[in-house]
Amino acid sequence: MMKLPHLTFLRSFEAAARLLSFTSAAVELNCTQSAVSNHVRSLEEFIGRPLFVRHARSLSLTDVGEAYLPSVRHALQEIDVATQSVIQRSHTRKVVVSCPVSLAENWLPDVIRGFNTVHPDIDLTVHGTVWTDVEPNVSDISITINHLDDVSTDAKRLWVEKLSVVCAPGFLVNNAPLTNPAQLQEASLIHILGRPAYWEHVARHFGLVDLNQKDGLRTNVSNLAMEMAAKSLGCVALPRSLAQSYVERGLLVEPFKFDLNSPWAYFVRLKEKPVSPPVRLFQDWLLKAAIEMNA
C-alpha cells in the first residue's frame, strides 16, 4: 500500500484552506498556530509541492492546493461519518423480537428475565404477533408458528412441540371429573380458529370417532382459549409449551397424559445480517432456552 500523509497534516491543511488562516485553523483544531503551520509544511514536503501562498497577513491556495482540497475534504468527511457510525453501533445495545402473542406471554418472559439478569445493558423490544409476522426488517429475531409442511429453509425449529389437553381443576363431564380421553366425546370443547388439526390429531390418537368438533366456543387467541378453559367453559387442545405456565400456576390441569407431536411448531429466523453482538447474545440465549424445553 502506498504510504500516506499523516491524518493530522490533512486536517490542518483542510481547516487552513477553508479558513485561509493558520491562526483560525489552530483555534478550530484546538492547537497552536505554529503546530498548524508545521503540519501544512510537512504535508507540502510530503507531496513535494506548495499548497499555500503565504502573504504578510493572509493565505491563498496555490493551483495545487485548490485541486487537492476537494479530495481531502471528501476523504475527511468519509472518515468522520464512518467513525460516528461505528461509535453509534457500539453504543446501541438493542434487540427487537417478534413473537406470537401466546408464546410471548407464556414462555418468553422467563427467557427475557434470565437474559436481563446477565445482560442488563441490552434493551429488548417484543412485538406480539397474531397469525402473521410483523413487516420485514422490523425485528432482528422473528419467532413464528408454522405447520411442519410449510416452513422456509431459513427457519430453525425451536423444539419438538407436543399437544396437550387442558381444563380447569375440577372440570366435570356429565357430573364426573374428566380423567379419561373417552369422556372428550361428551365434553364441551374449546376450539382455536385456524388450528382444527389440534383436536383432529387428539381424536385420531385416542380413536375418538364421535368427537364433536362443530359445537363449542371458538377463538383465534390461544391465551383466550385457556382463560375460557380456566373458567370451566370447556377443555382445549393446544401446544404444551403454551399450557405449561397455566398448569404451573394451577389455573389448568392436564387430566390425562399422552405423547403426541403437534403438526404446528415454533420456528426462529434472524432478520439482521451481519448479526450484531447483542442480537447474537440473545439468539444464543433463546436457543439455549429452547433446548431446555426439549429436555
Task: Provide a descriptive summary of the structure in words.
- There is one protein chain.
- The chain is α/β, with parallel strands linked by helices.
- The chain is 43% helix and 19% strand.
- It has helices at 7-19, 22-29, 33-47, 63-91, 101-106, 108-118, 197-206, 222-230, 240-248, 277-294; strands at residues 52-54, 59-61, 94-100, 123-129, 141-147, 156-157, 163-166, 172-173, 176-177, 189-192, 217-219, 235-239, 264-270.
- A five-stranded mixed sheet has the order 4-3-5-13-6.
Features:
295 residues, Arc Repressor Mutant, subunit A, D-Maltodextrin-Binding Protein, domain 2, five-stranded mixed sheet, four-stranded mixed sheet
Task: Give the topology.
Blueprint: H1 7-19, H2 22-29, H3 33-47, E1 52-54, E2 59-61, H4 63-91, E3 94-100, H5 101-106, H6 108-118, E4 123-129, E5 141-147, E6 156-157, E7 163-166, E8 172-173, E9 176-177, E10 189-192, H7 197-206, E11 217-219, H8 222-230, E12 235-239, H9 240-248, E13 264-270, H10 277-294
Helix pairs in contact: 1-2, 1-3, 1-4, 2-3
What is this structure, in a nutshell?
With 295 residues, the protein is of the alpha/beta class. The protein has three domains: 7-91, Orthogonal Bundle (Arc Repressor Mutant, subunit A); 94-159 and 269-294, Periplasmic binding protein-like II (D-Maltodextrin-Binding Protein, domain 2), CATH 3.40.190.10; 163-248, Periplasmic binding protein-like II (D-Maltodextrin-Binding Protein, domain 2, 3-Layer(aba) Sandwich).
